[in-house]
Amino acid sequence: MPKIVVIGAGFAARVLHLPGFTAAGAPVAAICDVNEAPARTLAAKHNIPKVYGNWREMIDAEEPDSVSVCLPNVLHREPVLYALSKGAHVLCEKPLATSVAEAREMFEAARAAGRTLMAAQSWRFEATSRAIRRIVEAGDLGEVYYGEATAMRRMGIPTWGVFHQASLSHGGALLDIGVHMLDLALWLMGNPAPVRVSANVQARFGTRPEIARMMRSAWDPKKFDVEDFAVALVHFANGASLLLRTSWAAHIDKETFSVRLAGTEAGATTIPPVIYRNHEGIPADEHLQLQPSPGYEREMAHWLKVIAGEAEPIVTPEETLNVQRILDAAYRSAREGREAAVER
To answer: What domains are there in the chain, each with its CATH number?
Structure first.
């Protein structure tokens, strides 16, 4: 078994990485967090023998084969580069970086070290996502010329962590939940090359004291300096387009996390998993019958195969760079109030 360590004892480690490794029967050798109390709680739950308060000390002492980086967005770069320099493979939570330049630096470091760096895009491992991907790859949808990526909550501003502070998160709803559906949509559409983006980001709820009080005063509305809503229209080099919508809070009927695809022969949605087509001119909806299974278990099992040399990463560097290119262009478009070209 590879020697695995985890940096960060927050949501991603608690809900995704550690349960996934446990389910795969892969023991974790150590966990680190500057706040050792939650790290010790997770260590006791998952039989992790060592707890550290400094990730450099942990990597130096443990000499791991694999490092999971589960830190706030702006803190990804240093531990990723350090772990790679010490010969470890790295699974890093999304978004991988805060800029295209930063993401490219990380992947170049991985290539130089002869190690694998993969962004942990967990939604690709859901049964619904995998089923739609198989159908797209089989050509059943024909040419996919349009997509919609939706990650919208009715009242779901995070009540934990540092999501509300740009100094640590870099962005809000777009980087927290929007990136999930953006990555999934690009993957299902075959990773087309983005060329320009028109976007708008706003903070309509998080800065309001009465909303913060409703959410147990989990953040200071005066210090809430990220977006809680974003919308972007992405144009691709192949003529396709994608509408991305995301919110932490909005007056809508229900929370929605889904991708919709429109193809020349059929359309599809991931949640619910349905194929829409015509049979002899008669509209027909084909509801997929899938066995539910935890995506995080499949994600960590896949990662273990990758670092063992038994599989290629399902999330490739170029796909992750395309996600980052769109994110960068979206924020630039919103900031400048005009359509932005995507930097290569």
So the answer is: 4-120 (3.40.50.720), 124-296+323-341 (3.30.360.10)
